[in-house]
Batch of 4 targets.
Target 1
Amino acid sequence: MTVAVPPPPAVPASALYEPRTTMDAAPLQRPPHADMAWEWFRSIGSPKFHVAPMVDQSELPFRLLCRRHGATCAYTPMLHARIFSQDRKYREEMLTTCSEDRPLLVQFCAHEPQHLLAAARLVQDSGVADAIDINFGCPQRIAKRGGYGAFLMDDLPRVESLVRVLAQNLRIPVTAKIRIFPDLAKTVAYARMVEAAGASLVAVHGRLREQKDNSSTRADWDAIRAVKAALSVPVLANGNIRHLGDVGACLSYTGADGVLSAESLLADPALFDVPARASVAVGDVSGRGRWYSAPPLERLSLAAQYMDLVRAHPVPLRMVRGHVHKMVGDWLAEHTDLRDNINRLPPTIQLFCQVRVRVCGGVKEVCVCVYVSRFANDPVLSRHACGGHIHCVTHCRLARCSVAPCPLTSCSFLLLLLIEQC
Ligand SMILES: Cc1cc2nc3c(=O)[nH]c(=O)nc-3n(C[C@H](O)[C@H](O)[C@H](O)COP(=O)(O)O)c2cc1C
């Protein structure tokens, strides 16, 4: 269920956004829509684990994969509002969804408020979105040329009018994803202006516009914490969520209501899977702590699941190519013929079916390796493993195991489940 958020009163950006030298200079006022914003957030389940918006990468099959593995909300990739409002083909290709794909935040970039409103209305009227998100964080050159994303940090009255036009004219909430300024007080004033303009949720990517390389720059959780303390609507933290351990650390340090993950989720779509990842090492606030990589067996299985989702929900194959590299890139490094084909040939579903077949073959190979290495030192078990069990593994039928009683059933069960998924 979505909850209508009443439009906030019109206040000019100049009155709301005055660069300040200290946060204390700004009187804390709870905006009138804050209660409705929380009611809406609760109505979508107070989601903590968000698939971040990613151009060509947070598309439907990937969102579904992440949801099946713990994500509780997802953003679409950034859509260009003007093109979306004018071009039916773009709409049909770039925004696909299904009933499992909720809650969903549809993200737009825009320079002109009327383009943004036209695009947002189309989405609202189609009933597929829980909110419309505005991208104020894209730092790429194309955003500079188009006058959107993080380059709007140089034109705050326009930021305000983009948020406000949606808040005043839509029945579903508007949310915003922002970056930080070098100056903490300016960041907080910026976030408060976005909130006052009508945003029902603010996601803060704790990096500067100039910090484009996420892996080499630590996100500033202190800035996120300051924004959370200053705002009355839900706040999400973004940056340096590398594994499940970081989620808890980030939530407790920043006080944020949820987190977004992007790059690490591409490599491990099960990052938010609490039962599966609970034992993963905890990073600390300084950024120490190891990066996490899911075991090869599991990544191969996730890639196979992703391929199945692509079959059910076709998307442009350049997106599939990106995911295949992120999920099983190191495995493809051993299968260079396949990797070269993926890089060189026009992407076709047949090509990715080959990957799927080889990925499944890889799962079996890894199963056999795990199996043999685990039991090789046990004379009885290794005899079994080299006889009936490996036979069972390669034929994916534990039930037909000829070795009775089977001493390895429970160990084999998980591996076989993975194979069965292939
Ligand atoms: C491949 C890719 C595409 C992205 N596309 C978008 C986008 O469409 N909209 C957006 O707001 N941010 C986009 N981002 C930024 C992420 O949403 C996120 O803010 C950033 O990667 C930091 O999160 P992380 O440290 O978990 O990677 C993208 C990031 C990546 C890696």
Note: DSSP finds 19 helices and nine strands in the chain.
Target 2
Amino acid sequence: MRFTLNGARRAVTAHPMKRLLDVLREDCGLTGTKEGCGEGECGACTVLVDGAAVNACLVPFAQVGGAHIITIEGLGGRHPLQHAFVEYGGAQCGICTPGMIMAAVALGPRSSLDAPTRSSSPSRWTPFVDASGSERSAREPLKPSRRS
Ligand code: FES
């Protein structure tokens, strides 16, 4: 099956019912997308498919033919949200952080997130306020580090 992964055309042969999560990790070697619950509840496996945030653990590989998929690796470590998660303590143990960032990327640029909700990627380990503060700060113009 052919699709675009992080901006590059890919052709992967896998069972059509194999989970996109497993195709990304096992067939494409992109282990940044994590498995938490494996049943569509936690959002740890969130990737973008044609710009929409999806739980890769619930998507059969057969559904992504011709799609444009972006994983956490596709952000290249340079996305403002990644910097903000580090700067404001939104980063967590590493299991759910990539999914939280991808879910936030799917929201697109906004002037504010005045009423954040726990719609996706709720962490069970770190107060949500840290992640939502990181998301909010990433939507503001980049400022000099507050740690310098
Ligand atoms: S691992 Fe996919 S939603 Fe939890």
Note: The chain has a mean pLDDT of 83.
Target 3
Amino acid sequence: MTLRRAPTSRDVAEAAARQRRVVEEVLSRGVARYGCPCEWDRFVQWVGKEHPERSMDDWQNLLVRAAAGLPTFRIGPPARPEWWLQDEWLCVRCGARWKHYSEEWRMMAYRERLVREGRPAPAGRMEAPAVPGQALSPEAWAEFMLGEPSGT
Ligand SMILES: [Zn+2]
């Protein structure tokens, strides 16, 4: 019988880097397919998810941060202040408007949320399948987002 060793900080850093790569890959494939992410239902729903108390979603945080780097978004200050509203995004390709919230829900821990205006994400509906008690694997998440096996 082999004992599983406890993860080291290096394992954790590698897993985080891998997760970020998967998010960037999924995002670029989705944008290649749809032209921009605004009509990509799973993107709209994942980035717009609300959270139960005391939880956050790394996938969502990474996806919102990666999307901020897309050339299709012009990002500007909010027209009207709102609690946790960070900035407003305009898609120069299709004209969709988004609101980006960044909530400090714990000291120095933020949950990012991106809400498409005029098309709120259904609350808590589309969760990728995860094995109970285990973190969502990058493969499962990518497959869910793209609706096909990821090949990464
Ligand atoms: Zn768009």
Note: The mean pLDDT is 86.
Target 4
Amino acid sequence: MNTSNSKKLYIKAKKILIGGVNSPVRSFKDVGGAPLFIEKANQSLIYDVDGNEYIDYVNSWGALILGHTNKQVTNSLQKYILKGTSFGATNELEINLAELIVNAFPSIEMVRFVNSGTEAITSAINLAKEYTKKEKIIKFHGGYHGSIYQFNKEIILLPYNDFNSVEKTFKKFKNKIACVIIEPIAGNMGVIPTHKDFLIKLREITEKTGVILIFDEIISGFRLTYGGFQSIYNIYPDITCLGKIIGGGLPIGAYCGKEAIMKTVSPLGSLHQAGTFSGNPLSMISGITTLKQLDKNVYENLDHKSKKLQTELEKSAFKNNIKIIINRYGSMLSIFFTNLDKIENYFDVQKCNGKLYSKFFWKMLDQGIYFPPNPFQTFFMSTAHTEKDIKNTISASDIILNNF
Ligand SMILES: Cc1ncc(COP(=O)(O)O)c(C=O)c1O
């Protein structure tokens, strides 16, 4: 495959953008090699600047549940862009998107829109600290919550799915913990759902001690069901962070929860939080038009296609004596090259063979299949993926694993 134009642009970009990119995973550093420069996309496909076509399983890191250039989203954007791109004032679309979210999440009464997942998480943590007047933040190994390194000194890092360590930490730091933050289904160390009994106990201990429980559903919000992973387990946090899908491919984030907590934020309360572009009308209409297309059939269809991809990839690995584990929940999948029997936490993930994944990644890319350029990230299926896309993906992997 000829990628000479991408290579030329990368040399140029490195002189002026940090590492040639605006977000590190895009640099392909984790799989070794130069990144592709993408020129355009359509439905399930993306095209690089050399004219190569790829079936896209990154889907803007899960934001594009309807794939690229969804007709209804594009039509809404074309209509609304003529009305202005940013007002710095309140707009009715903000109420409409917030209503869709509140109706989908029993734990949410109020919403504050921001511009990214990172901003949602940062604001949610600040809110928890202000509300409880406490400092410590518990997070879990392998959980990714955006660029929140300003909290490093206050963070206590614990193993995922291990309640004993949570209990011990609650004893040790009694009356000092502001919040616990967790992806109820991890998507940034591959796909790893929490164990239900772990999450139940986490809810119980936080409720009993007045510690704020924050669910980071920036990936899982509207990804697996119409609502959050919280509705699948019926375990509800105090604050939910959303992003990605609720913006339908435009920049967005939101932190949300019960009124009693949310009213701590300005203009009602003492915690100042503001944003020039927050509630941007184009992000709002893109999100509204996306959420309105999601229903039970969509989720069933995504599950069906993803299951097919999983089972066929497993078969092809098995046939060729290559040991892999695929973790999947609905339309989120991840492939681990490993001899382990299961992958349940970050320590398991670290034992997997990232080099083999990288080899697989490059060979698949060469066949026109764009998997995440990182061994431990999630593949996302969209409604735009066709049966033919899946068939082509499976045939490519069959050939590659046969000569691995
Ligand atoms: C679970 C999770 N939380 C937070 C973020 C940060 O969101 P953003 O990249 O929009 O800042 C991400 C981004 O991938 C994420 O996957």
Note: The chain has two domains: 4-69+296-402, 71-291.
